[in-house]
Prior knowledge:
With 63 residues, the protein is mainly β. The protein has one helix and four strands.
Amino acid sequence: MARKCDVCGKGKATGNKVSFSNRHNKRTWRPNLRRVKAIVDGSPKKIRVCTRCLRSGKVERAL
């Protein structure tokens, strides 16, 4: 299971957690994914979509 949006491809991002004393530790940011039933190629299908794509209307929900 890839933590990746099926619409825009947004995935895990990496960087540093920086403390008050300026120590650097590796950390990751994961996309806010939701499993929704959407219309894909004319038929309903369950896909993983980030909330940014849901809000912007890039996904047609199947109710």
